[in-house]
Write a structure and sequence with these properties.
The protein has 401 residues and is an alpha/beta fold. It has 2 domains: 23-51 and 296-400, Alpha-Beta Complex (Aspartate Aminotransferase, domain 1), CATH 3.90.1150.10; 56-294, Type I PLP-dependent aspartate aminotransferase-like (Major domain) (Aspartate Aminotransferase, domain 2, 3-Layer(aba) Sandwich). 42% of the residues lie in helices and 14% in strands. It contains 14 helices and 15 strands. It has helices spanning 23-32, 53-65, 75-89, 104-115, 131-138, 160-167, 190-203, 231-234, 243-246, 262-274, 282-294, 296-319, 346-356, 383-400; strands at residues 40-41, 98-101, 121-124, 142-145, 149-150, 156-157, 172-178, 206-210, 237-241, 255-258, 324-326, 333-337, 359-360, 362-363, 374-378. β11 (324-326) and β12 form a beta hairpin. α6 runs parallel beside α7. The longest helix has 24 residues, at 296-319. The protein is globular, with a radius of gyration of 21 Å. The N and C termini lie far apart (59 Å). Bound molecules: pyridoxal-5'-phosphate. Pfam families: Aminotran_1_2 (PF00155).
Length: 401
């Protein structure tokens, strides 16, 4: 039982991550050698923060007292998850709808396998989280790109005519939706989601809805979990959630997939059995339960930091000509339109940032060609670190003149 009250939390300390097992810090040194030691990666979507002390305490208690035999998800685990979804998202979930897995992407791949056959087609909306492309390719599917449309106000929207015509392809059996959308930051409105759902229902396209960023939305925006739109929508969807983005626990591999339609749920579970079963590691479960039960104040405090950091980027892009902020409605990622900087190729932009400004963002081209000359910035870091990164970019840009 976690009794201690841990707030206020430390979101200020700049952690030394070199020499840790952090994949993104390792990648910089791997690619740039020793010369990359001072390059700051604000790339891969995990945070430069320690996890909530409430979670750490639960893990220590578990490590000290538990026996690590085969596990099942206990009633307390489900209660924590169901309460979170009810309380944060007004989403009432029956435990029989839930399957656990060691990550959202293993679950997305499994769901794809359960509703498609090799040679089928799947809709994604680029620029989008690039492992969706890998999932389609690994499962022998052809991608139909319902490319997002950026208007002159810097707002991304959906081309519904294009979506309708792609969904009408008889070989199109699935769509992968990202809500909130990584990297463009859109929180899809209930109206948009209903229109997507109506098209998928009409065309018998199964919807795989990745809601891993659902706990991050900024004032004025509210994430709608897809099934809450109504029973006919719940009937076609797989919803992928996880405490791992929300509470910076990605290394603990834990996610919960919600499949209200019992027929789809059976197909999903059979596809999972076919690869030897999907489940969650003991510590993943302990951390997930503790986070949902006890760490909400940590998340609330984190949101204040993210809003402050977003404000910094807003000021920076207002000051620096050639870079435009695509205002995020959700996620802890900022999508920067750098087309105005005048680089000849996306590679030149990327080299400039890494070699001159000493910062490593995720280059937009990773998310599809429509992401060329964009950069994705991870806002989940101490404000001082972000200030330092932005100052470095300004200096490097001034030197380039
Ligand atoms: C949209 C989206 N889906 C899935 C993932 C990865 O989830 P997992 O680590 O649980 O496979 C990420 C991580 O950045 C993500 O942004």
């Amino acid at each position: 039982m976690i009794l201690a009250q841990h707030a206020p939390y430390d979101f200020d300390t700049i952690l030394e991550r070199h020499g840790s097992s952090s994949a993104k810090w390792h990648e910089v040194v791997e690619q740039m050698g020793e010369d990359g030691k001072d390059v700051v990666p604000l790339s891969v979507a995990d945070m430069e923060f320690k996890p909530a002390p409430e979670v750490v305490e639960a893990l220590i208690q578990s490590a000290t007292h538990d026996v690590f035999g085969y596990d099942y998800a206990t009633e307390d685990y489900f209660t924590a998850f169901l309460n979170w979804m009810e309380h944060r998202h007004n989403f009432h979930i029956d435990p029989s709808w839930v399957s656990l897995s060691d990550g959202v992407m293993p679950a997305v791949n499994t769901a794809l396998r359960s509703v498609t056959r090799p040679g089928d087609k799947v809709i994604i909306q680029r620029p989008v989280y690039y492992p969706f492309t890998f999932a389609a390719e690994h499962n022998g599917l052809t991608i139909l790109d319902n490319e997002l449309v950026l208007d002159e106000n810097g707002h991304y929207g959906i081309d519904f005519d294009d979506l309708e015509s792609k969904a009408a392809d008889p070989r199109c059996t699935a769509m992968i939706l990202c809500n909130p959308h990584n990297p463009v930051g859109r929180v899809w409105t209930p109206e948009e989601l209903r229109r997507i759902g109506d098209i998928c229902i009409k065309r018998r396209v199964r919807l795989l809805c990745d809601e891993i960023h659902a706990d991050f939305s900024y004032p004025g925006h509210k994430v709608t979990m897809f099934s809450t739109l109504g029973a006919e929508y719940a009937n076609i969807v797989f919803e992928f959630t996880a405490p791992t983005k929300t509470f910076n626990l990605a290394g603990l591999l834990c996610s919960n997939t919600i499949i209200p339609n019992p027929h789809l749920k059976r197909r999903y579970d059979a596809a999972a059995d076919n690869i030897g079963g999907l489940t969650v590691n003991h510590f993943g479960m302990v951390a997930c339960q503790a986070a949902y039960d006890h760490a909400e104040p940590w998340l609330d405090a984190l949101m204040e930091v993210l809003e402050r950091n977003l404000g910094l980027i807003r000021d920076f892009t207002a000051r620096v000509s050639g870079i435009r902020l695509i205002e995020p409605e959700g996620t802890y990622l900022a999508w920067l339109d750098c087309r105005g900087l005048g680089f000849d190729t996306p590679e030149e932009l990327c080299d400039f940032l890494r070699n001159e400004a000493r910062v490593w963002f995720d280059e937009g081209s990773m998310f599809g060609e429509s992401g060329n000359f964009f950069e994705r910035v991870n806002l989940a870091c101490p404000t001082r670190l972000l200030e330092q990164v932005l100052a470095n970019i300004e200096t490097a840009l001034a030197d380039r003149q």
